[in-house]
């Protein structure tokens, strides 16, 4: 009986010791696994009162972007460092984030030549660290196997991340915005080419509407054949358009006006990725 009591006492003391390692002085560590770990990330962001520093390789989730915009409006200082990737879509929310948010792109590496900035972490109010394998994308939240770790009030760990963020931020490249005045002709590929990397308002007649059943993506084609200009509407934005304005297929043959950033992909050509259905309107019916 005495030996059993000693064993029981040992495990009680051990559990108290382990708990103290994580919670002493208010310290706490939370671990989450996919699917649906975004809610824990967003809960951490919602608690921000003063600052949020973010280093993220791929960031396309507009729910998170909207929350950051809201926190910036509340007066929270936010800095976002995006990774340098093979295509600008992998950080497409940079054009959706409010101008009150400071934005840079990795200035240390050049994609596929000397490595990448592959970090995924956020520091909230200098006391909460959010990190893990989780890129801030819809796929990472709903499809992939990912992990998320939230560490609170662990000064020694958080200070190391702050130091690393400062190093990356110092060498980051400011994301500049170039806006073309007037309207360009989407049906004239030479007009489009001149505006690569710039924000434009354009007008043109939709020659054809393509659709991918696999991804739920629509393609508004303005050229007579492959190699013309395309407006890409991913599933989330497409759903908003359909719910508010009707079938996207009805746009075939219509003249439309759209605002967005002209991007070039070697595989696909010149495109605007539509992030807000309200930025696409029918000029004539």
Automatic annotation (TrEMBL):
<keyword id="KW-0378">Hydrolase</keyword>
<comment type="similarity">
    <text>Belongs to the phospholipase D family.</text>
</comment>
<protein>
    <recommendedName>
        <fullName>phospholipase D</fullName>
        <ecNumber>3.1.4.4</ecNumber>
    </recommendedName>
</protein>
<dbReference type="GO" id="GO:0004630">
    <property type="term" value="F:phospholipase D activity"/>
</dbReference>
<keyword id="KW-0732">Signal</keyword>
<keyword id="KW-0443">Lipid metabolism</keyword>
<keyword id="KW-0442">Lipid degradation</keyword>
<feature type="domain" description="PLD phosphodiesterase">
    <location>
        <begin position="113"/>
        <end position="140"/>
    </location>
</feature>
<dbReference type="InterPro" id="IPR001736">
    <property type="entry name" value="PLipase_D/transphosphatidylase"/>
</dbReference>
<dbReference type="GO" id="GO:0016042">
    <property type="term" value="P:lipid catabolic process"/>
</dbReference>
<dbReference type="InterPro" id="IPR051406">
    <property type="entry name" value="PLD_domain"/>
</dbReference>
<dbReference type="GO" id="GO:0016891">
    <property type="term" value="F:RNA endonuclease activity producing 5'-phosphomonoesters, hydrolytic mechanism"/>
</dbReference>
<dbReference type="Pfam" id="PF13091">
    <property type="entry name" value="PLDc_2"/>
</dbReference>
<dbReference type="GO" id="GO:0006793">
    <property type="term" value="P:phosphorus metabolic process"/>
</dbReference>
<dbReference type="InterPro" id="IPR025202">
    <property type="entry name" value="PLD-like_dom"/>
</dbReference>
<feature type="signal peptide">
    <location>
        <begin position="1"/>
        <end position="24"/>
    </location>
</feature>
